[in-house]
Amino acid sequence: MKLRTFIALEVPDVHRQPIASYLAGWSKAHKQGINWVSGQNLHLTLQFIGDTHSGDIPQLKEDLFRLCIKTPAFEMNCLGFELFSARQPRLLWVKLETADKGIFTFAKDLNRTVRELGYEPDSKPLKLHITAARIKVQQPAWLEQEFMQSGLPAEPAVYGTVTLYQSILKPDGPEYIPLQQYELKNR
Prior knowledge:
Elements: E1 2-10, H1 13-29, E2 34-36, E3 43-53, H2 57-69, E4 74-84, E5 91-97, H3 102-116, E6 129-135, H4 141-149, E7 157-159, E8 161-168, E9 175-183
Antiparallel strand pairs: 1-3, 1-8, 2-6, 4-5, 4-7, 5-6, 8-9
């Protein structure tokens, strides 16, 4: 049996709550052509694996445990909402930044771990973002401006929980089932 899986960093409440608040308001007011991410599904994807043999899950969990216990948590700032791509936006996301480049080393370690299990990891470089919505139909310029001008707290937050998720695609949006969670080392 195969499971669709990915590895993500959980969004700490200090960032999750204001993002989820914006999304709740926007999703009520702007339903046409936008698939909104629910507040409980907010995460920073570190590695999308895709179809994963269920027999490989125990080894993946063990490998993730070994990586996580030696990796310090990451402090990040929200820079605000951003549209991607700029010309014909298909995603609304929250852009993050960190001075700690260790997150990119951690992502490379995850990439190597997935490859060693026989899977072809996502080759795109890690972009520090939290997907907020998938835009299916071009939105009016005034709404795009509203997204871009919405302020998020400048307070940094510690991203210290890694989750191995199963993703089940459904017509009303994906369901994410945590298979295992790991705490990174305290800073």
